[in-house]
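Customer escalation, tier 2.

The customer says the design service returned an amino acid string that "doesn't look like it belongs to this structure." They asked us to rerun it and document both sides in this ticket. The original structure tokens are below, unchanged.
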């Protein structure tokens, strides 16, 4: 993976969404075809032999690479969304994050006990959103659950909130907060 290409195209937005947050904007990676191809190739190589049957993407930046990878792996795509956005029966999970509280939902019938699931999102900061997503997916009793991020902000120690059995991986690990 060409980390230099990805890092040189990653945009940093200071004080977004609130003062003190240094927002890592992956949309600058998504608009660059070379970066998209690099991310696509890296994710495919990492997960091609894992038997994944469903890829869960977290609203909204998690949808981009989760959908692309689902197509390449011949897996289904499952969205996790904010409340009221999914039309069928859902289960939900509320959680705290670095700048407030939120809730996410998944369709009750999206995953079953035969599924091997990869949950994908753009960035691991404090981990609240992904932990909520992990808890939602686990309630549906899949065979196995893996977690992936494009970027991990190591200084925020988000990885530490996941249970020991959670398989957490990131393509780019940055020291910052």
């Amino acid at each position: 993976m060409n980390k230099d290409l990805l890092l040189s195209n990653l945009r940093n937005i200071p004080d977004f969404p609130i003062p003190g947050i240094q927002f890592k904007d992956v949309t600058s990676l998504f608009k660059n075809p070379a970066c998209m191809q690099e991310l696509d190739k890296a994710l495919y190589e990492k997960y091609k032999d894992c038997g994944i049957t469903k890829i869960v993407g977290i609203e909204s930046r998690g949808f981009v690479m989760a959908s692309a990878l689902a197509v390449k792996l011949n897996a289904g795509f499952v969205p996790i969304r904010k409340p009221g956005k999914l039309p069928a029966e859902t289960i939900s999970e509320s959680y705290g994050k670095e700048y407030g509280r939120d809730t996410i939902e998944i369709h009750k019938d999206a995953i079953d006990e035969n599924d091997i699931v990869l949950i994908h999102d753009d960035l691991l900061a404090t981990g609240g959103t992904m932990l909520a997503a992990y808890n939602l997916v686990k309630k549906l009793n899949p065979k196995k659950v893996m977690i992936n991020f494009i970027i991990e902000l190591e200084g925020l120690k988000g990885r530490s909130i996941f249970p020991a059995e959670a398989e957490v991986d990131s393509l780019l690990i940055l020291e910052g907060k």
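Tier 2 assessment: The sequence is consistent with the input. Residues 33-47 form the longest helix (15 residues). The two ends are 23 Å apart (CA to CA). Sent an explanation to the customer and offered a walkthrough call.
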